[in-house]
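Budget justification, computational time. The allocation requested in the original proposal was used primarily to generate C-alpha cells for proteins on the priority list. As evidence of use, we reproduce two of the resulting records. The first is shown immediately below.
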Amino acid sequence: MQKLPDTTVLQLDLAEGWLTIWLDNPKSRNAINDAMCAELLAVMDSVRDDRSVRGITLRGKNDIFCSGGDLKSFNAMQAPGVTQAEVAKMNRGIGDVLLSLNEMPQVVIVLVEGAAIAGGLGLMCCGDVIVATEDAKFSLTETMIGIPPAQIAPFVVARVGLPMARRIMLTGARFTGREAVDYGLVDHVVVSLDELDEKEAEIKRGVMKCAPGAIAATKHLILSSRDKSGAEMMNHAADVFADCMLSDEGKEGITSFVEKRKPNWNKK
C-alpha cells in the first residue's frame, strides 16, 4: 500500500488491515481546523483505493471526540478585508472532508467519548457504524453563536431524517449518548471505554468476514440510491452486481461456499 502521510494533529495506527485515525489536538479539544482537514483528506486519499485496508476507525484522543470547528480560526476570518468568497471557501473545505469520509469504500466506525459538538457531530454522522459512551455529550451549537450548521446539515439529515434534524439543529438541544441512540444518531451505546473497545472489536470481526470489494460496491450502491430511483437504479445495481460476480473476488466467494471453506479474505 501507499505510505501513510505524515501528520501533526492526527495519530495513525495501521494494524492487521485496519486503520485507526485518532484526532489529536489537545489545545483545541480536537477542534476541526485547516490542518486537520488537510491531514484527514491526505490520509483518506492514501487508502481509498487500497483493499488491503479493510476498515477505518475514527476516534478522539484527550478524552473527547471533537469539539467542533475551531472558533479562533472563525474569528480570524471576520477580520477587516476578508471577503465572502474566502469565508465560503474555508467552509467548503470542511465539506470536502465530510464528503470524502462519507464516501470512503471501506467500512468506517466512529467511536465517541467525551463529546461530539457541532462540526464534530457532523463528522461523526459520516460513519457507517457509530458507538458512543452513554455519558458522551452531543449538541449542534452553531445557531447559538449566529451561524448555520452549513456543511454538516445534509449528513445529519441523512443520518436521522428531516424531523429529528430540525429538532436538534434549530433548538440548541443538548443530549447524551443514551438519548442519541433514541434519536438515531448513534447505533450502539456503552457504559465504559473497555466496552467501547469491545464493541469495536465485535464490529471489526464481522467486517473482516466480508469481501472488501463487495463492501466497496455495496457502499457505492447505498449512496447511489440517494439520486437514482426506479429502473435507473435497478439497471445500475445489476451492472455493479455483474462486475462483482465476474471478478476474482466474486469467483472466490462462490467457489468457497460450494467447497464449504472460508474465502481467502476471511482470516478469522
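The second record produced under the same allocation is shown here.
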Amino acid sequence: MRLTTAADLPDPRPLYEADLAAAADEPGDVGMDEISYADWRAAYWDRPDLDRDLTRVAMVDGVVVAFSVALTDGGERYLSGMTGTRAEWRGRGLARLVKHVSMRSARSAGYRRAFTVNDAGNDAMRAVNEWFGYRPVAAEWRYLRTLQE
C-alpha cells in the first residue's frame, strides 16, 4: 500500500471510482451512484476549496482503496469533506489512517480548526471522528417527500 496526495495523482479517475464505491452504501438521503465522471470533476475535483495537497489517498496496485478529502478556506479552517474506504478494504483502519495523515498535514500547514459532517446512521465514521476528538456542534434535519402528480 502506498499513501499519497490527490495532487500526486496523474489522473483523478481512480479517486472518482473510489468515491463512487465508498458512497454506494453510505447512509444518507442522496446517493452518488449516478454522477458521471464529468459532473464529479466539476462538482468535486475542480471546486476551489479542494486542497489536493492535503487530500490523502491509500493506493494498492493503482487502485484507490481509501481516501480523505480536504477542503480548506486558505486561512485556518480545514474540513474533511469525505473520508471513504472501498467496502472490501473496510475494517483495517484505513479511513482513520488517511484522515489522520491529512489532519496532521493540515496542522503542519497552519490550519487550526477542523470540521467534519456525518449522517446519523454512519456509526463507523462517527466512531472514527469521536476518536479524533470531534464533538457535535450542530444538527441538521432533512425532510423527504414524494410529490404526487
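A brief technical remark on that second record: The longest strand covers residues 63-72.
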